[in-house]
Structure formats: structure tokens, C-alpha cells
Fold this sequence. Notes:
The chain is α+β, with helices and mostly antiparallel strands and 117 residues long. It has helices at residues 3-11, 13-34, 89-109; strands spanning 44-51, 57-65, 68-72, 79-83. The strands form two sheets. It has a two-stranded antiparallel ribbon with strand order 1-2. A two-stranded antiparallel ribbon has the order 3-4. Strand 1 and strand 2 form a beta hairpin. The radius of gyration is 16 Å and the shape is elongated. The model has no long low-confidence stretch (mean pLDDT 92).
Amino acid sequence: MPWRRRWLLARRPDLARGVLGELLRTVFAWQAERAGRPAGDGGAVTVKQRFGSALNLNLHFHALVLDGVYDHCPKSGQLRFWRSADATTEDVESLVEEVAARVESWLERRGFGAGGE
């Protein structure tokens, strides 16, 4: 998160939850597409950290994200794990840009546009 957003989210837990939700929805959809399972469901464990190494206020997220999605097998109907294709540096850079755009759009719809903090 950009620093100006970290301060906002540190003061507004409801916004921090919403931003995290946008982040995970975007990552899960990206993984589902890369796994060839658009209806697949991703999974993650996330911790919000509110401080940096100098014990300064620095809200950010640490997330362990599955490297694929769960979806039903068309042949057996059983739920199974579908691994996502390996990502290149360019793929990850593109995902970061998409997450940033979606988060900014989400915040703007709630009255927290780039100039309205």
C-alpha cells in the first residue's frame, strides 16, 4: 500500500477490511484464470501488521496464498485442486497494477479518492 493509504487504513479498520477483500478477490480471480478454472475458489491466510521494524505505524498485510484454486472435476464431480500456471515477473507486475487500480476505485466509491482523504 502507498504510505498515504496506510495512514488512512490504520485509522479506519472498515476500510482496511474492504481493501483486503478487494486484494484477495482480485488475486483469486487471477489464479482461477491461470488455472483454467474461472469458477474456482482460492484460499489464503492473512495477517494485518500495524507496525514496521522501527515500531512505527505501518499498516500492511502478510498473506499466504494457495498457488491454485479448488473446483469440481468435470469427469468425477469431485472437488479437486487445480494449480495455477507459473507466473512471470511481468505477470506479477500486471497483477499489482490491477490490484492497485481496483483498490483505488473501491476507495473512491466510498469518498476516499486520491484527493479526498
